Amino acid sequence: MSCIPRKHNAPRNGFSGLPDDLLFKIFVTLPAKDLVRLRRVCKTWYRLINSPNFVESHMTRCEPVLTFLKRYPEPRPNMFSINANNGRFTLFKLSSSSERDCEILLMEFTNGKNKVGTLDVCGFGNILATCNGLILATNKSGTLLILNPTTRKLVSIKPGTMVHQRDESYGFVFSHRAREYKIVHLLRDGSGHVDSEILSLKTMSWKGCTVPSFGSFRDFVHKPVVASGVVYWLPGVGGADHIVSMDIDQEKFVTSALPVNSTGLTDRLLENQGLLNFVGQMTVYRIQVWMLKTGQWVKRYTINMDYDIRDMVPVFITGNGKSVIFKMLNDEVFEYDVEEDEMKEVSVDGNQSFDMAFSHVNTLVSLENSAPLW
To answer: 74: number of CA atoms within 13 Å, CB side?
Structure first.
């Protein structure tokens, strides 16, 4: 008697019979762009991947990358562009005569090399800030937008009550206490007075708040940095002995001393692993990296070179904190390996010229209903 295999009604997908907790553990390790596709497979996967616990757990595993805007050299098909009329993404099919436009690029750093990827999203004027995978930007007409470029979700933000001027600054931060996202808007007038207002994305309304003391800021050339719910600013270029901060839950400005005076145009504040870092140019051959931990500045390390490094602008600290990425004024990119105490040029994928870059993570944070955004 021959042995005939018994037939089973196997599920279409090999994962379909797995329990939710095991699916959770598998899916949380996958890139956000893959999860966007997987949540279309069935209702069970959609509910799991979109659940607040999953989105937050996945976000904690995401490695930061560097994001910036660049004009693409030639039109490409199948790009998403912002429709300024309704604030939504529409598929923008480019022709050979289409006007060059700004798109969002992402740069990853691994072992002395980088990988530049595009999210095929264009139509931007400027990137203002990032938070948890969301990007605060403007379109070409200056309208404020918040988008998740991975999920292709976008909302437009109504202008604040303060009249738009050129010398202004935006911070974008998540309040863990209130479980909501907030935008901090500062505006400096010709006399040096700074006004401020805050937008709650839960209510989509602006309100005035306390203002920093007179003279705290000289300009807003440096974009603010957010670390653990606090927004930090270097108050101006060309020299400073303090930083200005706002705890988003307290909504009050505080001025505190830097560990060493900021004297160069290339000094920067950078976030890494939830902590604020100050990268300061000490001499033409020496850079120091300091970390703000439990209210105290701690020196992490000193970078000593035997050549002039005044043109090196720190733009990024990798997620594991082992490398600092510098951009030269001529667009060359260098990576300082902390463990090897070595500065080496990074092989750049293509000609990537950018003036302003931000740390970014690819997440599934949702913009739907705006409160909360995950």
So the answer is: 1
CA distances 224 to 86, 100, 170, 177, 301, Å, are: 29, 29, 7, 21, 23
| C-alpha distance from residue 34 to each of 38, 41, 228, 284 (Å) | 6, 12, 28, 45
Q: Which residues pair with 137 in a beta bridge?
A: 127, 145
Alpha carbon 332 to its chain's center: 21
Which residues make beta-bridge pairs with 155? Answer: 146
Cβ(282)–Cβ(266) below 8 Å: no
pTM metric for this prediction: 0.87
Angle between helices 43-50 and 20-27 (to 10 degrees): 60
Place of tokens 């990827």: 117
CA 201, 52, 21: angle at the middle one, nearest 5? Answer: 175
| pLDDT tens digits, one per residue of 197-252 | 999 998 899 999 888 888 889 888 889 999 999 999 999 887 889 999 999 999 99
